[in-house]
Amino acid sequence: MNNQTAYLEVRGATGGDEAKIWAQDLGRMYARYATKKSWKIFEVDEGVYKITGPEVFDLLKNESGVHRVQRVPETERKGRIHTSTATVAVLPEIKESEVHINPQDLDWQFTRAGGHGGQNVNKVSTAVRLIHKPTGIAVQAREERFQEANRQIALDLLRTKLWEKEEEEKLRTVAGYRSSIGRGMRSEKIRTYNFPQDRITDHRLGKSWGNLEAIVDGNLDKVLDLTKNL
H or E element: which one contains 106? Predict the structure, then answer.
């Protein structure tokens, strides 16, 4: 079975600090699922993951969209249930031949990576921020120890985001166009995770599952086996 590579990006949306925590929880859920599948996963930047393995994009592409959580946040003193959301985007790795990038359109910025990799990481400017001047799209890569590796990751990620932009424009303007991104764009609410009722509901399937904690802990097989064919 051929390996696939996908970029998965999770961002907090509505709900302030709780939305950011929820985004981190979702990132952890996908990372644990990837580990269970024996996929290779690493965090390119905060909330952005590069995942490689059999069927990676096929299984994850329909995770794109808004994921809503209903639960009592750890910061809530009165025990009130809050509703927060995070957005997930899953994009395939795009070949150079599919999206041409003019080097003159790029603004490269280099900074010192923080935190990971020991003291040596902070002595050289290994972290990369890349801005595509015509569109304003900016990406970052900071987890590799060598600048050249981060440069390549940033370029690959930018190519993926430019492809996503093209796909979204085609969806808006071409009647009947079906994107290979999958149905779930960033703005579509696809799933609710209701902790008080121990229930996860996929709104596209109209189906719910119990044992929510186990699913959020990375046991996604029974959910993704159904959604991959949407």
Answer: strand 106-111
